[in-house]
Amino acid sequence: AQKVTQAQTEISVVEKEDVTLDCVYETRDTTYYLFWYKQPPSGELVFLIRRNSFDEQNEISGRYSWNFQKSTSSFNFTITASQVVDSAVYFCALTLSGSARQLTFGSGTQLTVLP
Amino acid sequence: DSGVTQTPKHLITATGQRVTLRCSPRSGDLSVYWYQQSLDQGLQFLIQYYNGEERAKGNILERFSAQQFPDLHSELNLSSLELGDSALYFCASSAQGRGADTQYFGPGTRLTVL
Prior knowledge:
The structure holds 2 protein chains of 2 kinds.
Chain A: E1 3-5, E2 10-14, E3 19-21, E4 24-26, E5 32-39, E6 46-52, E7 59-61, E8 64-69, E9 74-79, E10 88-96, E11 104-105, E12 109-114
Parallel strand pairs in A: 2-12
Antiparallel strand pairs in A: 1-4, 3-9, 5-6, 5-10, 7-8, 8-9, 10-11, 10-12
Chain B: E1 5-7, E2 10-13, E3 19-24, E4 31-38, E5 42-50, E6 53-57, E7 64-68, E8 74-78, E9 87-94, E10 104-105, E11 109-113
Parallel strand pairs in B: 2-11
Antiparallel strand pairs in B: 1-3, 3-8, 4-5, 4-9, 5-6, 7-8, 9-10, 9-11
């Protein structure tokens, strides 16, 4: 069975600081997909990124960047120059390509950005 | 806005009652998923449908059931409600229901059982 671990329960930073959210996953499958979702205080789950297991290229989107390393089974998320609007719970998730297509979520990291 | 709609947004009911949560997927998506988010269990997968057929089942209680209709909307039925069923229930949809597909989530239905 697959597992996603987000060891950081809560992180607090001051605006404009950089912050990295850690995600470690476990699976025996060679084909899998990793995701990050954001849950702001309003409660909805917002999709941020999807990465497949064959693509280890890091990705940057504005202030967001993701570092995928298969060697350490990690898919970390960095926010550069954080803003108050980045305050939210961030979830890392994993799904497989076979019959079990449901998302397995980590427990989430509550990020608070202070002004 | 993900394009997935869920109704109602909030639901308050009593123990022992039955409720129905409704979800409409994004236009063109054939697969619907239901997840439960609670403080103690986190985000847990309940069940997946693809084009009207059940495709995968997670930790869904026997008191809970779901279906996907020909117009692809889905309903999650929760019966004999207990206090512990209080949670945020999310519906998500994806194009083909494959692992490679991104799941887009609705705004959720917050269920409170008193």
